[in-house]
Amino acid sequence: MPSTPSLISTDIDYERPGLQNGTLRVPYSHDRSAYGHIPVPITVLNGGEGPTVLLTGGNHGDEYEGPVALMKLVQRMPSMTVQGRLIVVPALNFPAFINGSRTSPIDRGNLNRVFPGARNGNLTEMIAHYTDTELFPRADVVIDLHAGGASFDHLPALLAAPPGDPSRRAEYRRLVQAFAAPHTMLMDLLGEDRTYGAAVERHGKLFLCGEFGGYAACNADGVAIVEDGLRRVLHTLGVTPDDNPPAPRHDTRWLKVDGARHYVFASRAGVAEPVFALGDRVEKGQLAARVFDPYAPWSAPQELRFAGNGVVVCKRSFARVEAGDCLAVLAADAHWQ
Question: Which of 58, 93, 213, 312 is least surrounded by Cβ atoms within 10 Å, i.e. has the fewest?
Fold first, then answer.
């Protein structure tokens, strides 16, 4: 653990056997509460010898399938017997989650872009710092659950980043196969090292992530995919040996986003009319969207075309666009290497 501990405190004793419900107390001194804090709910179930699994949702506050699945897990935990330890934080960026926004309403921080955080930083940086220095070191396996949020809808997909070590790759693939999502997308961080996943990678822990819906809604199918997948992963890890998880309903389809050619961006402001649907297979040069100028409705719309072949895995929900907004993300069929 760090020599200079986080300013975030907790009533949880991570080493104590049994079940504990508590909070992470994030210091927040402001006009209405000079000595206040923000309580972030956390549940720990310690069954002794075995792996530690960290489960988090609400990294972005407008993504609900993961937090709902984890809250349902928390309600089951009093009746569960585990070998190892479960650490569950259903809504890690709690201010954003309560506000229903991607970023924190307090400091506008995007938790998934500030790792490793800062002990003396703003609120979001402090949460990242605590996660990086207190939670990741305790975990053997880390699972972070996402969705498209208000601005996107996403095909239900597990995001996989296979480790380089061959023996760890075999164990990792076993977990991916146990989760059995409809789609598994091979991740490429493209040099981005501020994310939760990049931080887990630096700690050398096995990491699974996923996107299971969007539109800032709570997709029932997405919640079911997460619930069933987590049960199978925990059983495969030996954490819940007495559980009888449901059999996989999907033979996962392997996909990979291949750089800039798999993105469609608006190059000017306007109102976008997409001419594709989530899950469509499209080809390079195919019309993707028309962007109309509301100030000159008599002008011909700008036509945006796909720059590569693939399946539409992510679709923008907002019709109003500005230059630089992403309208779609594609992925191509891939194979486990």
Answer: 312
